[in-house]
């Protein structure tokens, strides 16, 4: 049986000790698990609280707790890389999603220009 897991599952595996760690480890032995990029986004947001070395952590967790398909995995990996290079967590995941889907980003956020995502300016031009 495949079950969907969310961030508390990832945190239980990632932290040195967690009251849910045993349950999470048992679930890995007993079930197929999957999650979404949203859980990994939340894990990145929790990074400051728990002081994770998040780049190798996410790569390792993706092997244990995969996302739905290869495209979604690429979103997570690209987003973590963009976050590591200084983007906010949300912008990093938006950029990674757009890039993986082969789309430009319509946004006023100029940080997209620093990565491999084409930005369509949302801000008005002079005279508008």
Low-pLDDT windows of residues: none
**Strand segment count:** 4
The percent range for helix content is: 55-70%
Strand order of the largest sheet: 1-2
Task: Summarize the helix and strand pattern as letters.
Answer: EHHEHHHHEE
Overall structural domain count: 2
Structural shape: elongated
Number of helices: 6
The overall average pLDDT, rounded, is 91
Rg over alpha carbons:
17 Å
The biggest sheet, with number of strands, parallel, antiparallel or mixed sense and barrel status, is: 2 strands, parallel
**Strand fraction:** 5-15%
Structural class: mainly alpha
Distance between the termini: 56 Å
Structural overview:
This protein has helices at residues 7-14, 21-30, 37-50, 54-64, 70-84, 89-101, and strands at 2-4, 32-34, 105-107, 119-121. The chain has 128 residues and is mainly alpha-helical. It has two domains: 1-68, no CATH class; 74-128, no CATH class. Strands 1-2 form a two-stranded parallel ribbon. α1 (7-14) crosses α2 and α4 packs antiparallel against α5. The radius of gyration is 17 Å and the shape is elongated. The mean pLDDT is 91.
